[in-house]
Amino acid sequence: MIPTDIALEARANLEWVAGKWWDLRAHLRRPSGDPNAPKVKGSKEPPAVINLHVSDLLHEITTEAVLWGRILIEEADWRQEHGEMPGLLVDVASQYGHFVCDEDEKVAYDFCDTAAEFRRKVEGVLNREEGRKYRGPCPNEKYLGAGCPGELYGRDGEGGTCPSCGESWSWDGQRIFILGCAHSVLMEQREIVEALWAMGSDVKPNTVYKWCQRGKIAKEDGLYRFADAVELSGVLNREDAEA
């Protein structure tokens, strides 16, 4: 049996994706004249008006939701309320317990990882630029005398501007900021995953959860030491190799 908070997060992720379904579909059609739209090799036809990345993502999520629905029908005599997306995904999310309570923990963790991955991919599209990832909180502590509440997103190796305070930030500066907090910060498991992603790691939630379960990450007052997770992820070693 996997931890309750992990199971509930999987349900929340699927419900979030379902709630953003029509926003995602709105990105399906490319603006006319988009120079980045793919062309068929050797063809003189104009660029495709459909964003193939979004089309593939919609298909991937729908296919998985249909598969989950079939499993529920076959194994739990389940009757779905909706036959189409996003209602089908909401129906599946409501039955999350069937997957997370499976005797095989791999099935449970795969379900949770897939839900988290779908949310990450949808967030990437809704952030308007393919390849933009969460980079952590804004480090501007002087904003309005209380610190900026903004969240930063950017491509690997690139900085940007905080959408809340307008302060510029750099890739290296943000990584140093997060690393500087690591030695004293205690986090929930979910927060550790997001912080590692902000540093450029591609670690899966399942991996972090197992580190915590096996005692590889020190636990204090119900929270976990981020510095241990940084070391285990190897993200700093990768930086040295790339330098």
Task: Describe this structure as you would to a colleague.
The chain has 243 residues and is mostly helical. It has two domains: 130 residues; 105 residues, no CATH class. Helix content is 53%, strand content 8%. It contains eleven helices and seven strands. The strands form three sheets. A three-stranded antiparallel β-sheet has the order 5-7-6. Strands 1-2 form a two-stranded antiparallel sheet. The protein has a two-stranded antiparallel ribbon with strand order 3-4. The relative contact order is 0.11. About 5% of the residues have low confidence.
Task: Quickly describe the structure.
The protein has 243 residues and is mainly alpha-helical. The chain contains eleven helices and seven strands.
Percentage of residues in DSSP E strands: 5-15%
The tally of structural domains comes to 2
Percent of residues in helices: 40-55%
| H/I helix tally | 11
Which spans have pLDDT < 50 for at least 5 consecutive residues?
32-43
Helix and strand succession? HHHHHHEEEEHEHHEEHH
How is the main sheet built?
3 strands, antiparallel
Provide key terms for this protein:
243 residues; mainly alpha; three-stranded antiparallel β-sheet; two-stranded antiparallel ribbon; 7 strands; 53% helix; 8% strand
Question: Any chance you could write out the topology, listing elements then pairs?
Answer:
Elements: H1 4-19, H2 21-26, H3 52-76, H4 87-94, H5 96-100, H6 105-126, E1 133-137, E2 151-154, E3 160-161, E4 168-169, H7 171-182, E5 186-187, H8 189-198, H9 205-213, E6 219-220, E7 223-225, H10 226-233, H11 235-242
Antiparallel strand pairs: 1-2, 3-4, 5-7, 6-7
Helix pairs in contact: 1-4, 1-6, 3-4, 8-9
